Amino acid sequence: MIELLYWEGCPSHPEAKALLEQVLAELGRDDQIVMTEVRSDEEAERLRFPGSPTIRVDGRDIDAMGASGRPSLTCRIYHLPDGRISPVPSREQMEAALR
Amino acid sequence: MSIALGTETPSFELPGVDGDDHSLGDYGDAKLLALVQYCNHCPYVLAWEGRLMALASDHADQGVRVVAVNSNDSARYPEDSFERMKERAEELDFPFDYLFDASQSLARALGAERTPEVFLFDEQRRLRYHGAIDDSRDENAVSRSYLREAIDALLAGEEPPVAETESVGCTVKWK
Fold first, then answer.
1. Nearest by CB: A9 against B44, B168, B171
2. Whole-prediction pTM value?
3. Start-to-end CA span in chain A (Å)
C-alpha cells in the first residue's frame, strides 16, 4: 500500500503526489495512492507524522532519515541527491522505495 | 491579508541575533529596505536561503538592507526559537539582520502569511514589491528573479517590472 500523508498548511503535497504518480507510471505500476490528511497535533502524534508530505510504502517511510522527526504540523525537509534542500522527496527516493 | 502596495512600513523594535535591538529607524539610511518573513524550520526558506544571502550581499554596497524576521510560534516549532535563530545565523554567517518577532506584531502589521515572503520598501518606506524572491524554489528552474528585478528597477528610479507575486512557502505559525 502506498500512502501519502499531508497537511493542508503546507503547499508541497500536490507536487509530491504528481511526482509519485509519474514515478509509478514509469515503473509500470498501477497502485492507488491513499491520501490521508493530518489535521491536528493529536493526529500528527497518533500517525507519527513528521511533516508534510510523508510517503509510506507498505508502512515504511521512503525517507528513513526524516521518519523519526518530531510529529508536527509542518512542512517536511528532504535532501536531494545533490545536497539541496527540498520540500518534496526526490524522484530517486521514490524509485528506490518502489522497486 | 497583506498590506497593499504603497503602504508605509510598520514601525517595529525587535531583538536581533547579533544581540542588539533593531528598530525601523535603525535602517533610516537605507535606500531600500526588504523585510523578509523568515524562519529556520521551513524547507521553502532553506531552499531559497542561498539566493537571499547572495542578493543581500550583492546589493549591500548600494544601500539595500535585507532584514529577515522570524515571527513563528517557537513553543510549537522549537527549531524557530531565538537560540536556534542565533545558531543558524552564525553557522551560515548571514549577511543580513535576523530579528525575532516573538509577539508576532510585525507579522500581523504586514499581514504576512508565508515564509519566505518579501516586503520591499522604497526610500520613503512605501511598499513597492511584495511576494516571492523569484519564481521557483528550484534554483535551477528560475526564470524571473522578482526581488532582484524590483531592487534594480527602484535603484534606477524605475517601477518594479512586477510589483506583486504569490508567496510560496510554509504558513506563518501563529500562536
1. B171
2. 0.94
3. 13
**Which residues of chain B are within 8 Å of residue A9 when distances are taken between CB atoms?**
170-171
Which CATH number applies to B13-171? Answer: 3.40.30.10
Which residues of chain A are within 8 Å of residue B169 when distances are taken between CB atoms? Answer: 11
Q: What is the pLDDT of residues B88-118, one digit of tens each?
A: 999 999 999 999 999 999 999 999 999 999 9
Q: How many CB atoms are closer than 10 A to CB A48?
A: 14
Residues 6+ apart with CB under 8 A from A42: none
Exposed / middle / buried, residue B100 (Cβ in 10 Å: 0-12, 13-18, 19+): buried
- Percentage of chain A with pLDDT > 70? 100
For residue range B120-131, what is the model confidence (pLDDT) as tens digits? Answer: 999 999 999 999
**Summary mean pLDDT of chain B:** 97
Domain locations along chain A: 2-98
Give the minimum alpha-carbon distance from B95 to chain A in angstroms, rounded to a whole number. Answer: 20
| CA–CA distance, B175 with B173 (Å, rounded to integer) | 7
Q: Give me the mean pLDDT over the B145-162 stretch.
A: 98
Contact A76 B43 (CB under 8 A): yes
